[in-house]
Amino acid sequence: MAKTAPSAMPASLAALVDALQALPGVGPKTAQRMATHLLQSDRPAAERLGQSLLGALHRIGHCARCNTFSEEPICGLCLDGGRSEAQLCVVETPTDMLMLEQTGSFQGRYFVLMGRLSPLDGVGPSQLPLPQFLEQARRPGLEEVIIATNFTPEGEATAHALETLLQGQGLSPPLRIARLARGVPAGGELEYVDLGTIAQALRERRPLSPSPESPPLPPKPLSLKQP
Ligand SMILES: [Zn+2]
Is the pLDDT of residue 147 over 60? Predict the structure, then answer.
C-alpha cells in the first residue's frame, strides 16, 4: 500500500497560502509566490500586513446611515452638515463612493450597497441591505435617488431592482429616480470608443440649449436623416 507523501510545505505556510486565496484574482500559484515573498524577502512588511489587517478587522464596521466602512457608528461624510439632503446616490462599493466624491461634483448623500445582485454567486435581494436603503430613501427632504451601480449585467440588474423597489413604496411626494448616464469618456475620440458606448451616448444625448443643466432627452429611436 502506497504511503501518503509528507507535504513539502509546513502546515502554517500551507494555511497562509490558503488564506491568501481569499483575495480576488489570487489563485494557488500567486498565493504561494506572495507567501514566499513575505516570509523570505520582506518579513517587516509581512508583520505590518498582519497587524494592520487585524486592526482594521477590529475597528472597522459599517456606517449606520450610508453603510460604508467606518470606525464610528456614523461616518464623517454622513455627519457633514454641509451636504445636501435632497439627493441620495447609491453605489456598489466604498471605492465607487470615493471615485464619485473625488469628482467634487456631487454634494448629496450616499448609500453603499456593499455588493450587487448576482444570482450566479448566490447574492439575492436578501443579501443586500435593502431595508437600510429604504430607510434612507424615506428621509425627509430627499427629492432624488441617483442609481450609480456599475454598467455590468449585475449592476444593471441591481439598478432595475432598486428602481422597482422604490416605485413600489408609494413614497409621497414621489422621488425622482435617475441612473448615471453613459457616454463618451472625457477626452475621448469617437474613433476609439466602442460601438455600444457610442449608441448609448446617442440615446442619452442632452440639448446644449437653453441650459447645460437641462435633463437628458428620453430615449428615442434616432433618425440619421436630416429634417
Ligand atoms: Zn455614512
Answer: yes
